[in-house]
Amino acid sequence: MEPNAKGLGFVTLPTISTPKDIVSLLASVIAARLLLRTFYTTILYPELFTPLKHIPTPAGRSLGKGTTAPSQKSHAARLRYWSKTVPNNGLIRYYLPGNQERVLVTSPKALAEILVAHPTDFTKPKATRERLWYITGRGLLLAEGEEHKIQRKSLVPAFSFRHVKDLYPVFWSKARELTDSLEKEIKKAPAKATRATLDIIGVAGMNHDFDALHDPDNLLNRQYRRLRQEPSWIEVLCSFVTSLLSPKDASIVSQLPTSRKREVKEASDYIRSVCRSIIQEKREKSESDQTTSEVDIIAVALKSGVFTDANLVDQMMTFLAAGHGTTSHALQWAVHVLCKHGQIQTRLRQEVRDNLPSITDSESTISATELDRLPYLHAFCNELLRFYPPVPITVREALHDMTVAGQRIPKGTTFTIAPGVTNLDEQLWGPDAGKFDPERWMQKGCANTGGVQNHLGFLTFLHGPRSCIGATFARSELACLVAALVGRFRLELEDPNKEVEPTQRGIGAAPVDGVRTRLEVVDGW
């Protein structure tokens, strides 16, 4: 075609004649959109267009590192530093690498608005939900609105103290298996702690023993390890890039198949098949024998009549995802603290030995009543959960424009709710908030509060309709495991001078390399 005026011409478009040309063009368009979106998201938006400029923000920000804090290595440590040093009225704005904007919630008032007063106005960010969906399905962790209310109401009886107290013999039995195993192979203590908590979830959750302590390489355990593998740096990079895209583009990219997704799906499908078989067997048994006395969580949920088999599989996968790793992490932190504080370890061992039967007695078991007679054990576990919350950071996204702590907040704003910050807040816990001290739970009237000024100051299990339904289960399981370990062994760190740093593991935080410990059997119990 000829130009229609002097000096003017037409842009020549590339000839598209093959599928390869189409793919090349689409790739070019996507790359251009990504580049423009990245420029807007990382440069223009935080500098010129963010509606959150009025929220206090720490100084020091770069595109590659986000908002920085001097000498603070972990994310939770940086958040604690800002909460202390940035004057605020309940909210602090900060940035992750790539200038991803976040709002840290620091006051009980703001926390109450999000968690208690308006919980349905906030949800887990889409990226988080999609990542968990492959594992948990639509269980209690990801259900929203009316569906979540129905599920929670139906599951509450299974997690009530009246029911959990019947599971103490399970906890104690697995604690015995753990101590027996550690006597034979002490060097693998961190791995064995993880296997013990997996076995407990299996038996207490669906009356099925994964037998991870004795047979860690059976097919079910191998598949579960595949499910829990940490993402590669390439997957982390892809996740970061996806966060820069528009919701529509991000949704398309998130559906692309990757080797990790295939691996997760294969592992999840196998574990789900095991869960389905167990649930079907339970359903048939309950229909033929109305007097069945099974006390596991799924058996109790079955009796509610609310859940289909598919629902129950999702719930079991949710319990595995949310309940196994977190207790394992808490136990590792417990060992670390006991090693660092010899006087606490000695006092705790004496209380356990004075009140509980020996863990070496294969015929012995314990009841909730017996364990309740150990005030220092409960004080220790409460302080541990305060000081080292297994999930130190969680996030919520605003579903529409709203006001929080008197500040106007636009739809899509991501809030950081940080038990690892709130639990150590000096304004709530006093000037010694940063000190590990079980005695704060031993004071008159403080056995359940630790003396905190506001109940929202203890955020380990969150609050409101979306608080952790398994809090009683987790506390009881942890108390039994700690009692067994400290009652049987003297614990020391292999390298007392080595700093133990937390790292993200799944939805929780654990010591980077586990806790390298020397265990010595203490006779006389």
TrEMBL record:
GO molecular function: heme binding; iron ion binding; monooxygenase activity; oxidoreductase activity, acting on paired donors, with incorporation or reduction of molecular oxygen
Membrane spanning stretches: none
Cofactor or coenzyme needed: heme
Binding site for heme: C468
Top-level taxonomic group: Eukaryota
Organism of provenance: Capronia epimyces CBS 606.96
Record-given protein name: Cytochrome P450 oxidoreductase
One matching Pfam family: p450
UniProt cross-references to InterPro entries, sorted A to Z: Cyt_P450 (IPR001128), Cyt_P450_E_grp-I (IPR002401), Cyt_P450_sf (IPR036396), Cytochrome_P450_monoxygenase (IPR050121)
